[in-house]
Structures are given as C-alpha cells and as structure tokens.
Design brief:
Two copies of one chain form a homodimer. Chain A is mainly α. In chain A, about 80% of the residues lie in helices and about 0% in strands. Chain A is built from ten helices and no strands. The first copy, chain A, binds a DNA duplex through helix 1 and helix 3.
Amino acid sequence: MTTRIQRRNRERILEAALDVFSVNGFRGSTLDQIAAVAGLSKPNILYYFDSKDAMHRALLDQLLGIWLAPLRAIRATGDPHDEILGYMRRKLQMSRDYPRESRLFANEVLQGAPRLADAIAGDLKALVDDRAEIIRGWIEAGRLARIDPHHLIFSIWALTQHYADFDAQIRLIRGDTDPMDGAEAFLDLLFDRLLKP
Amino acid sequence: MTTRIQRRNRERILEAALDVFSVNGFRGSTLDQIAAVAGLSKPNILYYFDSKDAMHRALLDQLLGIWLAPLRAIRATGDPHDEILGYMRRKLQMSRDYPRESRLFANEVLQGAPRLADAIAGDLKALVDDRAEIIRGWIEAGRLARIDPHHLIFSIWALTQHYADFDAQIRLIRGDTDPMDGAEAFLDLLFDRLLKP
DNA sequence: AACAGACCTGACCATTCAGTCAAGATTTTT
DNA sequence: AAAAATCTTGACTGAATGGTCAGGTCTGTT
C-alpha cells in the first residue's frame, strides 16, 4: 500500500532526478545533487529508491509511454498529409512541454542506448516499422511524394527534438528570441512541400 | 620545442579522450578510462595534459575550426540552391567522417554548453548571422522560398547531426542497413523542395 | 494516550576519482 | 660514453561518491 507521503516524495525525487540526469547524464549525476534538488537527505531518497540506477530506470520506463504516443496516434484511415503534419506538430509540442525528457532520451542514445536497447529494438522498432508500412501504402496510392518512410520519421524526430536538445545553442545564437518562435510555421512549410505527391 | 614522442603521445591521448568524452560526457568520463584506451598510465597522460579539463578544452578548441568550416564556405556569389545543398552535403559528410566530434558537441550543448558558451555566442553567432543575411538577400531577390534563414540553418544541423548523434537508435531500428544509407538522397529531395521560390 | 508502522537522519564505510611525487628508465645531446 | 633532458611509473593523498545502518521522529489507528 502506498501512503500520501510516499506518493509526494517519490514524485519529488523523480522530478529532481529528471532535472539532474537530463543535464549531466547517468554517470555524471550524483545522489547528492538529486537529493539537494529534491530537498531531501541522501539516505532519505535511498529509502524510496533502492539505488541511483533504480531512479534512472523509473524515469526511462515512464518516458517510453509518453514518447511513443504521438507516433501511435497515426491512423491509416486518415488523410496522409494531415496525419504526418499532425504527428510532427504533436512531436514539436512535446519538445515544448517535455524538454527534460527529450534530453534524458538524447543522453541515453548518445551513450549507445545501453539501458534502452531492448525497448528500442522491440516496441519502438515494431511501431516504426508498422507506421512505415502505412506511409508506404500512401505512397503506392499516389497520395504522398516518393520518399523513404524511415528517413521521413527520422527527419521528424531530428527536427522537433533539436529544439529541446540544442536549446542552449539556439538561445545563444538567437539572443532574446524564444528558441521555438517561428519553428512551427517553418516546419509546417517544410513538410507541406516535402509530402506533396 | 615539441619532440617526436610528445607529438605521438599527445595525439594518442586526444584520440582516446575523444572516444571516451564523446560517449560519456565530461563528468561521466574518468582519467583511468582515457589512459586505458590510450594505452598509457594515468600519471603519464597527466604528464602531457595538466588536467582532465585541459584535455577536454584541447578537444573543443580543435573541434570548433572543423565544425564551422562548412558554413563558412557558403558564398553570396554562388547559386542559392547549390550553395545551400552543398552546405547540407558537407555537413552530412562530417557526420559520416567525424561522428565522435558530433557527439562531443552534442554532449556539451545538452549540458547547457558551459564550456562553449563564449564560442557559440561569439564566433558561431557572428558567422550564422552573417550567412543568414546572405540567405535573406537571396530571398528578397526571389531566388529562394520565403523561409526563416535561422530555422533553415538549424534544420540542416538537426537533420545531418541526427545521423551521428542518434546512430545507436537508428541502427537498432534499421537493423543491418547502414544508418546513413539513403540519407543523402532523402535530404537532397527535402531541401530541393524546400528551397524552390 | 499508547502502540505500530512508516518515515527520516547523522555517522559511517568501501570504493572511485583527479591529481602528486620521488625515483627509475629511456632518449637525446655533448 | 657520460651528462643532460625527457619520459614513465608505482605508490600515494584527499576529496567525492554510492550505499548502509542503528536509532530517532513523525503519523495514523485503536
């Protein structure tokens, strides 16, 4: 049975761990940092999670559901152009709403995806292959330009996640301007032009 | 004066440090790892570099020149379409030739660019702003589609670096296929369509 | 109020880490 | 070949780090 205090503190700890891991990566983060951000003592956060590794795993587990949802929402029955632009927009919105999650994921993949290899080669690959098939069907039907479905999906990931992962760089180059200002209009135009048969 | 042995060992150490830093980030890397990869003892690598930080700085310094060259090569006098596609292709080639450098850079920016902030806000911003002006001029002259020059440059970075930075993910999803197989054809088509007036 | 169970912490431990140093090995110069 | 300069290392240090534990405090129940 989970108590009120348990829920509150587990939540606090994961929130703090996300802050720290998403910036420093797993090896570069310390329990002291996480404890400080969470406002709890180090032994106390280890009362709620068995180890640093357990905190990280909890975050990654939680992440995968959120991360795959936008791609899952693509429907073969919809209009190809709308479905793909909708997917891109949802993904861009995720970079806005969950930048730390995006960076946590980026950190993990940069390190060779040691803790995500199974999930990527399993669930994610299956989902991507399935949606690639739908896109291929649309192309065969002459409803989309002849483009490689995998590269299309990768391009959506690259373009949308870039705004979360490279936020620091964009901020430094664009100065005061909000990093994502104008991004949606640009990407709308880009994918509109790319997808037309 | 630098001796033969100095040149060889400094080279070995930076090579090893690039291997290690590009995967684990600065905080996540240890001198023992670097020493092991370099095939030298830990005190010995500290004989050639004053500190872990000095190795990292040496890599970043070296990196910036390589990194900015492709953008620098854009000429206002060339054909807009060719200049921008050429830039994209050079950048994609860099992801192929220097994937570790790309990941080192990504790691650094993910962490908020603490050691690169000056270089990004200085040299890089100046160069980007300048090339953005050239692109704006082409647009005014009706030689390119009306797109935001900054977002255009960011999109080239995002799409090309993605193949180096997220290599592990792409490999897991595409299986045996070479991650970059088909990437150039896809990006050629994408930018061809995007840039037309 | 008293009890049980849940929650919290200071002090501690073993290991890892960046960096030092004195002394030995190797290479270069004379 | 001897002297000088450069290169290399084992053994070490102090600080940081992940994790433990005995005992104390708080909270909800009866």
